[in-house]
Amino acid sequence: MPPKSPSLPQKNSYRVFGNMALVVPKELDELEKPFSLPSPKPFEIRFQVPDLRVAVRGFLRTREVGEFLSGALAGAMTKAVLAPLETIRTRMVVGVGSKNITGSFVEIIEQQGWQGLWAGNGINMIRIIPTQAIELATYECVKRTMTSAQEKWDKIENPKLQIGCLNVNFSLSWISPTAVAGAAAGIVSTLACHPLEVIKDRLTVSPEIYPSLSIAITKIYKDGGVGALYAGLSPTIVGMLPYSSCYYFMYDKLKKSYCQSKKKNSLNRPEMLVLGALAGFTASTISFPLEVARKRLMVGALQGKCPPNMIAALADIIRDEGVKGLYRGWGASCLKVMPSSGITWMFYEAWKDILLAERRMS
């Protein structure tokens, strides 16, 4: 092997100042070199988006959301089938055209064609989806809350008030959770969706004045402002309370009585259809005079004679048409309400079975 060459000493640097040369060690020379910083990295901002899929999936599987969606789907499917009966019923209730079902049907066909039977159905679908969803979800929620409160109240000793020889026992057992839930459902859904009801009635009764949804909204707002969209709200709530309470109370009672008599836990689809129709028939018959007065108040401005309140509307109807006038359009209403109630309950229970099936199994 050739011998390794000895390492050469590092050379020093020389600095010249005029006629003099100065020897600078290499180490000092390197320290005097400008210090170079590493090139900065580009500035970056990173946002970490949380994964909400699990939370959203869990939320959509809750009982309340399932009941809300079931109500919306049931309402949409029912109204799509029964829109012609709704159109005929509205015309007869407010006193437009013929006084019987067949005559109203023929008039609509002659004046507007077959599409006239679905007049206002677009807004009706927009109205019924949130209305049914809010109504049925509110009903289920309030019913569960009231039932739970009654059970807790019964477990403890009821508060008592003694006035002399009189003992007053404060108990919740006399309150029907179903009736209270039905009333709450009617009020909440009415407050939320009343403007859509007003627009739907205008489109149905006067299509020549309100040919489209956008024109109806613009004209109603221009004529009366936001308040016009809530025309007849008070009589609507007054008329809604007896109907909604009776409707849900009757369906629940009929369902429980029938299941007890047949010794079964649940109804099949045809039984839901029949019992729902009977509940709707009973509730509509009891509250129909208030429904007639409510409709007259809502569309009275179109005919130039709008009663100041519901009592005045009822008095005007009795004076002009007699007591029978309070039930004008009752037949058409029953033809609409009975299948609507039955089909709605049938679809609602069916969609609940589908959407809440996984929750029931867990």
Automatic annotation (TrEMBL):
InterPro entries, per database record: MCP, MCP_dom_sf, MCP_transmembrane
SUPFAM superfamilies: Mitochondrial carrier (SSF103506)
Protein's UniProt name: Mitochondrial adenine nucleotide transporter BTL1
Membrane topology: Multi-pass membrane protein
Segments annotated as Solcar repeats: 62-145, 173-257, 267-354
Subcellular location: Membrane
Domain of life from the UniProt record: Eukaryota
Primary location group: membrane
Keywords, in A-Z order: Membrane, Repeat, Transmembrane, Transmembrane helix, Transport
The organism of origin for this protein: Hibiscus sabdariffa (roselle)
Annotated TM spans: 228-251, 272-290
Signal sequence region: none
Family: Belongs to the mitochondrial carrier (TC 2.A.29) family.
